[in-house]
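Narrative summary of target 7.
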Amino acid sequence: MKTIAFFNSKSGVGKTTLVYHLAWMYAELGLNVVVADLDPQAKLTSLFVEEDRLAELWPYDGEHSQTILGTISPILEGYGDINEPYLEHITENISLIVGDLGLFMLEAQLSKAWVHCDDGNELALRILSVFHRTLKAAFQRQEADIVLIDLNSSLSAINSAALISAEYIITPLLPSPLFRYGLNNIEESLSRLREKWPKCLNKNLVVDLPTSLMQPVGYVIFQRRPPKYYTRWMDIPRIYHQTILNENIEDPPDVTQDNYCLATLSYYWGLMQMAKEARKPIFYLKPADGAMGAPVLAVKDCYKDFKQLALKIANVCAIDFQNND
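Modeled conformation, tokenized:
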């Protein structure tokens, strides 16, 4: 199972935008994609699903049986294991594990489970592996090629349980003075998990637990202004190698030469809102959606950029394509 989590403890860096567009691009390239919205704010779900359908998935005073909350409800209510995950089919090649604002209710149980997991407590391990087993069931049922995971911007117990389900970690960044704090927090989270989780694995003989490496494969930079405005770009490779990879390098590469820099992408300010209203990725915008004149060229550039990024991620994560022409 190929699982890629997109994580940064700082909000507003483009995680959800990245997952959304990569899901469409991988589908365009012939892969079957499962997208997991494990952010309690459920922003990714609101990008994929129209408002009328959201009202059905999130009834105000009814059960949310078709969301991630419905999948984990037996765990929350303490009477059993997870339900079979419901998948919202967006296209023939894209299926969504629907997010839910009620997911935050799992935080307390996960926090308690982390305390007891290395004691070999079976219930604690079942709770901590809830996302892994949900993703695995969805992956197998859809005969998927890849699972993309959108996470909240926090160091929560929910994110920790999601991260141990990820084989690979990609970090979206904004080139600003605050990026280093996000990287420091990520390093602390991953180090803590890599130290604690193997102890849990060694104590378990029953529960299907994730054994993924949580391997950092790189970062993606979103540019909100032309590159000439950024004075700290040279810091990004050095800080990433120092914090995430634990490598002290005297002569860090430039962003353009760093193998861990997967892409530098324009934020496409004007087209982003247009794409949200049209409920499609930027690179699928048409004149009928309002993409006329100069924006047409930006749409083409966006397609090229995301295709190149998708192929690069596939290469470093050893993902096979049915069709990559």
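The chain has twelve helices and eight strands.
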